[in-house]
Amino acid sequence: DRYDRNLEDVFALQDDVTREVISSLSKELMGGQLTRIWSGDLSGTGAWEYFLRGVSHFYKFTKEDCAIAREMFEKIHELHLDRSLGPGYIALTHWLDLTREWSAAPTESLRQAAEWASIAIACDGPNDGLGYVILGAVRLREGRHDAALALCPKGVACRANCPFALGELA
Predict the structure, then answer these.
(1) Around 157, how many Cα atoms within 13 Å sit in the side-chain half-sphere?
(2) Taking 60 as the threshold, does the pLDDT of residue 128 lie above it?
(3) What angle do CA 116, 119, 120 make, to 5 degrees?
(4) Taking the complete model, does pTM exceed 0.85, yes or no?
(5) What CA–CA distance (Å, rounded) separates 70 from 88?
(6) pLDDT exceeding 70 applies to what percent of the chain?
(7) Roughly how many angstroms between the first and final C-alpha of the chain, as a whole number?
(8) Could you tell me if 82 and 124 are in contact, meaning their C-beta atoms sit under 8 angstroms apart?
């Protein structure tokens, strides 16, 4: 493709080219599902880069990287208040802090996971289902099985191949 842009906006151009390369790879490798499921429409704001950086840190599964990932996902939320992606992944970082016993205040981590999951569920834009899964996991941990059973299928409906969603439903 060709990209005609003002050179003052070189970072926006870089984001566009990066997004197009990843989107093309996604279409080639996964029939376009990666872009649709994970990123929704994060164009024009740098949020796509925050997402990629956040996921990169998150999947290192260390306490320090989880904190950095949370910062990246918070930036996505600031840029896209109507999207569930940022809050869902913020909730997931709090859940990981709790379940990996990285948190000095487990009750607060549980509360934060539930709060951010609820924000993700309430978003008007595209929903990736992660909020439903996290809130379902929180309700299960609280012993509120009926509430968990009401939430987890909604998460699986959005994330049919997600082991975490399927595990929480099970």
Answers:
(1) 9
(2) yes
(3) 90
(4) no
(5) 10
(6) 76
(7) 45
(8) yes
Alpha carbon 10 to its chain's center: 27
Q: Of the candidates 39, 44, 41, 49, which has an alpha carbon nearest to the alpha carbon of residue 12?
A: 44
d(CA 15, CA 11): 6
35 in Cβ contact with 26 (< 8 Å): yes
Of the CA atoms within 13 Å of residue 100, those in its CB half-sphere come to 16
Choose between 101 and 16: higher pLDDT: 101
Helices in the chain by DSSP H: which ranges? 10-30, 33-34, 47-58, 63-79, 85-99, 106-122, 130-141, 145-158, 163-169
The DSSP letter of residue 36 is I
Measured CA to CA, the distance from residue 51 to residue 34 in angstroms comes to 12
What is the rounded distance in angstroms from the CA atom of residue 120 to the CA atom of residue 146? 20
CB 64 within 8 A of CB 50: no
* Tens digits of residue pLDDT in 29-69: 544 445 444 555 666 667 888 888 999 999 999 999 999 99
For 11, half-sphere exposure in the C-beta direction (CA atoms, 13 angstrom radius) is 6
Which pLDDT value is given to residue 145?
96
